Amino acid sequence: MRDQNYWQIKFKMCQYSKRLLNQLLILNKHIKDKVDIIEIKKAIYYARKYHADQKRQSGEPYYSHPIEVAYMVATYTAQTRPRFFRTDMIVTSLLHDCLEDTNITEETINIIFGSKVANQVQDLTRIKLEKKISVVEMINSLFIQGKSDILIIKIFDRLHNMRTLYAKSSEKIDKTVNETLCYFVPLAMHLNMNDIANELINISLKYLSGRNYKL
Questions:
Q1: How far is the C-alpha of 41 from the C-alpha of 87, rounded, in Å?
Q2: Which residues pair with 55 in a beta bridge?
Q3: Is the dihedral of CA 33, 123, 109, 11 positive or negative?
Q4: Of 70, 42, 95, 87, nearest to 152 (Cα)?
Q5: Which of 64, 38, 39, 40 lies closest to 51 in space, CA to CA?
Q6: Is residue 72 within a helix (H) or strand (E), and if so which, with residue range?
Q7: What percent of the chain has pLDDT over 70?
Q8: Which of 175, 84, 93 is nearest to 184 (CA)?
Q9: Contact, 197 vs 189, CB < 8 A?
Q10: What pLDDT does 138 receive?
Q11: Could you read off the pLDDT of 37-46 as tens digits, one per residue?
Q12: Which part of the chain is the HD/PDEase domain (predicted)?
C-alpha cells in the first residue's frame, strides 16, 4: 500500500477531473457542510489508476464515466438535497465500477477510504458472492433497504450511460431503454427526481422514435 502515501505526488489533472474539482470548489462556497477536496482527489487518482487504459465504447477513457457521475451527483445533491452532498457520496460515485470492472478489492478500498465507502461501493457492485445479479435486482435490493443515497448514485450512473447510449449496439440500446423506462424512470419519480426522470424519458423516446418497439 505504499501508493497510498504517495498518491498526491503521482496525481495528474485531466480535463474530466479539472471540471469536477472546479465545480466542487464552487459548490463548497455555497454549502455549510463542505466536501473534502483532498479525499475526492485521492478517489480520482485511484479511479484513474485502476480503470487505467480501459475505454468506453464511445472511445473516451473509462474513468471519464465515474468522474462525470460524481460531477452530476455533487451538483444535484448540493442544489436540491444538501444532506446528501457528502464526501463519501462523491468518493463512492468515483469508485462505483471499480470492484466489478477492475482488480481492486473491497479490502483495499476499506483500507484507503474506510468501511463506509467500501460498503457503498459493494452496494453498487452486481457481483454478489461470486454470482452476478441484474441491474433490476440491485436497485430492488437498495430500494428495500431504503438506501436512497446509493440509489441517487445509481440513477446518475444510468443517466450518463443513457447520454452516451449512441455508442452501443442496437440490441444493447433496446435493452437499456426498456430497463430505463420500466425501472429507472419510476424510481427517479419515487425519489422526487422529476427533472431526471423526464430526461431519461426524453432520451428513451429519441431512440424509440420510428421503431416498432414493445415494452
A1: 11
A2: 61
A3: negative
A4: 70
A5: 64
A6: helix 64-80
A7: 95
A8: 175
A9: yes
A10: 93
A11: 999 999 999 9
A12: 58-171
